[in-house]
Design goal:
By secondary structure, the chain is α/β, with parallel strands linked by helices. It is built from 11 helices and 11 strands. The structure holds the ligand O=C(O)CCC(=O)C1=CC=C[C@@H](O)[C@@H]1C(=O)O and magnesium ion. It is an enzyme of class 4 (lyase).
Protein backbone atom coordinates (compact mmCIF):
# COMPACT_ATOMS: atom_id res chain seq x y z
CA UNK A 1 0.00 0.00 0.00
CA UNK A 2 1.61 3.24 -1.21
CA UNK A 3 1.71 6.06 1.31
CA UNK A 4 2.55 9.49 -0.07
CA UNK A 5 4.72 11.73 2.12
CA UNK A 6 4.50 15.54 1.89
CA UNK A 7 6.60 17.99 3.92
CA UNK A 8 6.10 21.62 4.92
CA UNK A 9 8.84 23.38 6.92
CA UNK A 10 7.63 26.28 9.07
CA UNK A 11 8.90 29.13 11.23
CA UNK A 12 6.79 30.82 13.85
CA UNK A 13 7.79 33.81 15.95
CA UNK A 14 7.32 33.99 19.71
CA UNK A 15 5.22 37.03 20.65
CA UNK A 16 7.98 37.76 23.20
CA UNK A 17 11.34 35.94 23.12
CA UNK A 18 11.18 32.96 25.51
CA UNK A 19 13.88 33.74 28.06
CA UNK A 20 15.62 30.70 29.58
CA UNK A 21 19.10 29.91 30.87
CA UNK A 22 19.82 28.70 27.31
CA UNK A 23 19.27 32.29 26.12
CA UNK A 24 16.37 33.99 24.30
CA UNK A 25 14.28 31.85 21.88
CA UNK A 26 12.68 34.02 19.19
CA UNK A 27 11.76 31.67 16.34
CA UNK A 28 10.38 28.12 16.56
CA UNK A 29 11.30 26.18 13.41
CA UNK A 30 9.65 22.89 12.60
CA UNK A 31 8.51 20.53 9.85
CA UNK A 32 4.96 19.31 9.24
CA UNK A 33 4.41 15.88 7.70
CA UNK A 34 1.32 14.77 5.78
CA UNK A 35 0.79 11.15 4.81
CA UNK A 36 -1.96 9.93 2.50
CA UNK A 37 -2.56 6.33 1.57
CA UNK A 38 -4.25 4.80 -1.46
CA UNK A 39 -7.58 4.76 0.41
CA UNK A 40 -7.38 8.53 0.91
CA UNK A 41 -6.72 8.24 4.64
CA UNK A 42 -4.54 11.06 5.97
CA UNK A 43 -2.14 11.27 8.90
CA UNK A 44 -0.35 14.39 10.11
CA UNK A 45 2.90 14.47 12.07
CA UNK A 46 5.34 17.13 13.25
CA UNK A 47 9.07 17.35 13.65
CA UNK A 48 9.64 19.99 16.39
CA UNK A 49 13.35 19.74 17.24
CA UNK A 50 15.15 21.46 20.11
CA UNK A 51 18.83 21.26 19.05
CA UNK A 52 20.07 22.75 22.35
CA UNK A 53 18.40 19.77 24.06
CA UNK A 54 20.45 17.47 21.82
CA UNK A 55 17.93 16.76 19.06
CA UNK A 56 18.55 17.13 15.36
CA UNK A 57 17.94 20.40 13.48
CA UNK A 58 15.03 20.98 11.11
CA UNK A 59 17.53 20.97 8.24
CA UNK A 60 18.76 17.50 9.21
CA UNK A 61 15.19 16.22 9.55
CA UNK A 62 14.21 17.67 6.18
CA UNK A 63 17.31 16.25 4.49
CA UNK A 64 16.54 12.78 5.87
CA UNK A 65 12.87 12.84 4.83
CA UNK A 66 13.65 14.22 1.35
CA UNK A 67 16.45 11.68 0.80
CA UNK A 68 14.04 8.81 1.50
CA UNK A 69 11.52 9.99 -1.11
CA UNK A 70 8.86 7.31 -1.66
CA UNK A 71 11.10 4.72 0.05
CA UNK A 72 10.77 6.53 3.39
CA UNK A 73 9.06 3.55 5.03
CA UNK A 74 11.76 1.06 4.10
CA UNK A 75 14.50 2.68 6.20
CA UNK A 76 14.31 3.04 9.98
CA UNK A 77 14.83 6.60 11.21
CA UNK A 78 18.27 6.82 12.88
CA UNK A 79 18.32 7.34 16.66
CA UNK A 80 20.19 10.63 16.01
CA UNK A 81 16.90 12.01 14.61
CA UNK A 82 14.51 11.61 17.59
CA UNK A 83 12.18 14.45 16.54
CA UNK A 84 11.91 12.88 13.08
CA UNK A 85 11.16 9.48 14.65
CA UNK A 86 8.33 11.11 16.62
CA UNK A 87 6.97 12.97 13.59
CA UNK A 88 6.88 10.04 11.19
CA UNK A 89 5.65 7.48 13.73
CA UNK A 90 2.89 9.82 14.92
CA UNK A 91 1.75 10.46 11.35
CA UNK A 92 1.65 6.72 10.64
CA UNK A 93 -0.31 6.11 13.85
CA UNK A 94 -2.87 8.73 12.86
CA UNK A 95 -3.14 7.32 9.35
CA UNK A 96 -3.88 3.89 10.81
CA UNK A 97 -6.26 5.14 13.51
CA UNK A 98 -9.96 5.07 12.74
CA UNK A 99 -10.65 8.64 13.74
CA UNK A 100 -8.04 10.84 15.41
CA UNK A 101 -10.41 13.77 15.34
CA UNK A 102 -12.21 12.87 18.55
CA UNK A 103 -9.93 15.38 20.21
CA UNK A 104 -10.39 16.89 23.63
CA UNK A 105 -7.96 19.62 24.70
CA UNK A 106 -7.21 19.13 28.42
CA UNK A 107 -8.76 21.68 30.81
CA UNK A 108 -6.59 24.49 32.19
CA UNK A 109 -6.62 22.88 35.64
CA UNK A 110 -4.84 19.85 34.10
CA UNK A 111 -2.23 22.06 32.42
CA UNK A 112 0.72 23.88 33.99
CA UNK A 113 0.60 27.59 33.22
CA UNK A 114 3.88 29.01 31.97
CA UNK A 115 5.19 32.24 33.49
CA UNK A 116 7.70 34.58 31.83
CA UNK A 117 11.16 34.70 33.38
CA UNK A 118 12.00 37.53 35.72
CA UNK A 119 9.86 39.94 37.73
CA UNK A 120 7.06 39.91 35.09
CA UNK A 121 6.04 36.53 36.51
CA UNK A 122 4.53 38.39 39.48
CA UNK A 123 2.09 40.22 37.23
CA UNK A 124 1.27 37.21 35.01
CA UNK A 125 0.75 34.61 37.78
CA UNK A 126 -2.70 35.93 38.81
CA UNK A 127 -3.76 35.86 35.15
CA UNK A 128 -2.72 32.21 34.84
CA UNK A 129 -4.66 31.41 38.00
CA UNK A 130 -7.69 33.22 36.63
CA UNK A 131 -7.39 31.08 33.48
CA UNK A 132 -7.77 27.99 35.71
CA UNK A 133 -4.15 26.84 36.07
CA UNK A 134 -3.28 25.53 39.54
CA UNK A 135 0.31 24.61 38.69
CA UNK A 136 2.65 27.26 37.32
CA UNK A 137 6.15 27.08 35.85
CA UNK A 138 8.77 29.78 36.13
CA UNK A 139 12.10 29.93 34.31
CA UNK A 140 15.03 30.76 36.58
CA UNK A 141 18.77 31.10 36.00
CA UNK A 142 18.06 34.08 33.72
CA UNK A 143 18.54 37.04 36.12
CA UNK A 144 20.88 37.45 39.15
CA UNK A 145 20.08 34.76 41.72
CA UNK A 146 19.43 37.22 44.55
CA UNK A 147 16.83 39.01 42.43
CA UNK A 148 15.16 35.75 41.41
CA UNK A 149 15.01 34.38 44.97
CA UNK A 150 13.56 37.72 46.11
CA UNK A 151 10.91 37.47 43.38
CA UNK A 152 10.25 33.83 44.35
CA UNK A 153 9.44 34.89 47.91
CA UNK A 154 7.09 37.59 46.60
CA UNK A 155 5.51 35.10 44.19
CA UNK A 156 4.73 32.42 46.78
CA UNK A 157 3.33 35.05 49.16
CA UNK A 158 0.92 36.14 46.39
CA UNK A 159 -0.15 32.64 45.27
CA UNK A 160 -3.12 30.78 46.85
CA UNK A 161 -2.25 27.91 49.19
CA UNK A 162 -3.32 25.25 46.67
CA UNK A 163 -0.96 26.56 43.98
CA UNK A 164 2.03 24.47 42.90
CA UNK A 165 5.14 26.04 41.42
CA UNK A 166 7.78 24.45 39.18
CA UNK A 167 11.15 26.20 38.84
CA UNK A 168 13.11 25.43 35.67
CA UNK A 169 16.81 26.31 35.59
CA UNK A 170 17.52 24.65 32.22
CA UNK A 171 20.83 23.37 33.57
CA UNK A 172 22.07 26.93 34.07
CA UNK A 173 23.01 26.91 37.77
CA UNK A 174 26.31 26.20 39.48
CA UNK A 175 26.32 23.63 42.28
CA UNK A 176 26.49 26.46 44.86
CA UNK A 177 23.55 28.28 43.22
CA UNK A 178 21.51 25.07 43.07
CA UNK A 179 22.01 24.64 46.83
CA UNK A 180 21.03 28.30 47.39
CA UNK A 181 17.84 27.69 45.42
CA UNK A 182 17.05 24.47 47.30
CA UNK A 183 17.47 26.20 50.66
CA UNK A 184 15.01 28.86 49.47
CA UNK A 185 12.62 26.18 48.15
CA UNK A 186 12.76 24.14 51.36
CA UNK A 187 12.03 27.29 53.36
CA UNK A 188 8.84 27.68 51.31
CA UNK A 189 7.95 23.99 51.41
CA UNK A 190 8.27 23.78 55.18
CA UNK A 191 5.89 26.71 55.64
CA UNK A 192 2.27 25.40 55.66
CA UNK A 193 1.03 28.94 54.97
CA UNK A 194 2.65 29.05 51.54
CA UNK A 195 2.07 27.44 48.13
CA UNK A 196 4.14 24.33 47.29
CA UNK A 197 7.21 24.25 45.11
CA UNK A 198 6.68 20.99 43.22
CA UNK A 199 10.26 20.64 42.02
CA UNK A 200 13.43 22.33 40.80
CA UNK A 201 13.84 21.31 37.13
CA UNK A 202 17.30 20.55 35.68
CA UNK A 203 19.34 22.66 38.13
CA UNK A 204 22.66 21.44 36.70
CA UNK A 205 23.87 20.44 33.20
CA UNK A 206 23.05 16.88 32.03
CA UNK A 207 26.58 15.58 32.72
CA UNK A 208 26.14 16.18 36.47
CA UNK A 209 23.65 13.42 37.32
CA UNK A 210 25.66 12.32 40.39
CA UNK A 211 25.55 15.86 41.81
CA UNK A 212 21.81 16.19 41.07
CA UNK A 213 21.17 12.84 42.77
CA UNK A 214 23.05 14.13 45.82
CA UNK A 215 21.00 17.35 45.75
CA UNK A 216 17.81 15.26 45.58
CA UNK A 217 18.88 13.39 48.69
CA UNK A 218 20.03 16.49 50.56
CA UNK A 219 16.90 18.65 50.40
CA UNK A 220 13.14 18.19 50.77
CA UNK A 221 12.25 19.85 47.47
CA UNK A 222 12.21 17.37 44.58
CA UNK A 223 14.54 17.61 41.61
CA UNK A 224 13.30 16.97 38.06
CA UNK A 225 15.45 16.05 35.06
CA UNK A 226 14.59 17.46 31.64
CA UNK A 227 17.59 18.09 29.38
CA UNK A 228 19.19 14.99 30.99
CA UNK A 229 16.37 12.76 29.73
CA UNK A 230 15.52 14.32 26.35
CA UNK A 231 15.45 10.96 24.51
CA UNK A 232 14.26 7.46 25.42
CA UNK A 233 17.90 6.30 25.42
CA UNK A 234 18.75 9.02 27.96
CA UNK A 235 15.65 8.15 30.03
CA UNK A 236 16.80 4.51 30.19
CA UNK A 237 20.37 5.55 31.00
CA UNK A 238 19.33 7.76 33.94
CA UNK A 239 16.92 5.06 35.13
CA UNK A 240 19.70 2.46 34.97
CA UNK A 241 21.98 4.82 36.92
CA UNK A 242 19.36 4.83 39.69
CA UNK A 243 17.51 8.12 39.12
CA UNK A 244 14.09 7.85 40.76
CA UNK A 245 13.21 11.56 40.91
CA UNK A 246 10.92 13.29 38.45
CA UNK A 247 11.45 12.74 34.71
CA UNK A 248 10.24 15.61 32.51
CA UNK A 249 9.51 14.09 29.11
CA UNK A 250 9.00 16.00 25.86
CA UNK A 251 7.50 13.33 23.54
CA UNK A 252 8.18 15.51 20.47
CA UNK A 253 11.96 15.15 20.91
CA UNK A 254 12.09 11.82 22.79
CA UNK A 255 12.16 9.60 19.70
CA UNK A 256 9.83 6.69 18.94
CA UNK A 257 6.47 7.00 20.77
CA UNK A 258 6.27 3.21 20.92
CA UNK A 259 9.66 2.99 22.67
CA UNK A 260 8.69 5.80 25.04
CA UNK A 261 5.46 4.08 25.96
CA UNK A 262 7.31 0.79 26.49
CA UNK A 263 9.74 2.53 28.89
CA UNK A 264 6.82 4.08 30.80
CA UNK A 265 4.85 0.85 31.04
CA UNK A 266 7.92 -1.17 32.12
CA UNK A 267 9.28 1.20 34.79
CA UNK A 268 6.29 3.35 35.89
CA UNK A 269 8.61 6.37 36.40
CA UNK A 270 7.56 9.64 38.06
CA UNK A 271 6.75 11.41 34.81
CA UNK A 272 5.75 14.94 33.89
CA UNK A 273 4.95 15.40 30.22
CA UNK A 274 6.15 18.64 28.66
CA UNK A 275 5.62 20.48 25.42
CA UNK A 276 8.36 21.24 22.91
CA UNK A 277 6.41 24.32 21.78
CA UNK A 278 5.06 22.25 18.91
CA UNK A 279 2.00 23.18 16.83
CA UNK A 280 -1.43 21.58 17.23
CA UNK A 281 -0.21 18.61 15.14
CA UNK A 282 2.64 17.64 17.44
CA UNK A 283 0.65 18.69 20.52
CA UNK A 284 -2.16 16.23 19.83
CA UNK A 285 0.27 13.34 19.31
CA UNK A 286 2.29 14.24 22.42
CA UNK A 287 -0.81 14.59 24.61
CA UNK A 288 -2.16 11.27 23.32
CA UNK A 289 1.07 9.63 24.53
CA UNK A 290 0.78 11.45 27.88
CA UNK A 291 -2.79 10.20 28.28
CA UNK A 292 -1.63 6.62 27.68
CA UNK A 293 1.39 6.89 30.00
CA UNK A 294 0.09 8.93 32.92
CA UNK A 295 -1.96 6.98 35.45
CA UNK A 296 -4.38 9.26 37.31
CA UNK A 297 -3.91 11.41 39.28
CA UNK A 298 -1.38 12.75 36.78
CA UNK A 299 0.81 15.78 37.53
CA UNK A 300 -0.14 18.89 35.55
CA UNK A 301 0.79 18.65 31.88
CA UNK A 302 3.62 20.98 30.87
CA UNK A 303 1.64 22.17 27.85
CA UNK A 304 0.84 25.74 28.83
CA UNK A 305 2.55 26.83 25.61
CA UNK A 306 -0.45 28.05 23.65
CA UNK A 307 -0.70 31.79 23.14
CA UNK A 308 3.08 32.28 23.26
CA UNK A 309 3.37 32.89 19.53
CA UNK A 310 2.61 35.96 17.42
CA UNK A 311 0.20 34.01 15.17
CA UNK A 312 -3.22 32.38 15.57
CA UNK A 313 -2.12 28.86 14.63
CA UNK A 314 -3.19 27.45 18.00
CA UNK A 315 -6.83 28.01 16.97
CA UNK A 316 -6.50 25.88 13.82
CA UNK A 317 -7.13 22.17 13.26
CA UNK A 318 -4.25 20.11 11.80
CA UNK A 319 -5.82 20.19 8.32
CA UNK A 320 -6.37 23.98 8.53
CA UNK A 321 -2.78 24.48 9.66
CA UNK A 322 -1.46 22.34 6.81
CA UNK A 323 -3.46 24.41 4.29
CA UNK A 324 -2.31 27.66 5.94
CA UNK A 325 1.38 26.93 5.28
O1 LIG B 1 7.24 22.26 30.44
C1 LIG B 1 6.43 23.19 30.36
O2 LIG B 1 5.62 23.46 31.25
C2 LIG B 1 6.41 24.08 29.13
C3 LIG B 1 7.49 23.79 28.12
C4 LIG B 1 8.84 24.30 28.58
O3 LIG B 1 8.98 24.82 29.66
C5 LIG B 1 9.96 24.16 27.67
C6 LIG B 1 9.80 23.73 26.40
C7 LIG B 1 10.90 23.66 25.49
C8 LIG B 1 12.12 24.10 25.86
C9 LIG B 1 12.35 24.77 27.15
O4 LIG B 1 12.42 26.16 26.95
C10 LIG B 1 11.29 24.52 28.21
C11 LIG B 1 11.82 23.49 29.21
O5 LIG B 1 13.02 23.48 29.49
O6 LIG B 1 11.06 22.72 29.78
MG1 LIG C 1 12.73 22.21 31.25
Amino acid sequence: MGVELALKPYRRRFAQPLQTAHGPWMWREGLLIRLEDSLGRVGYGEVAPIPWFGSESVAEALAFCQAQGSEWRSHPVPAELPATQFGLESAMAELAAENFDIWQEPSSTAICGLLPAGERALAIAPQRFAQGHRTLKWKIGVHPITDEIHWLNQLVQALPLDARLRLDANGGLSSAQAKQWLVACDRVNTNPQLATIEYLEQPLPPDQLTEMTALGNGYQTAIALDESVATVAQLENCWDQGWRGVFVVKPAIAGSPQELEAFCQKNLPRLVFSSAFETVIGRRAALAIAARCSPAPAPALGFGTQGWFADNWDTLTPAELWERL
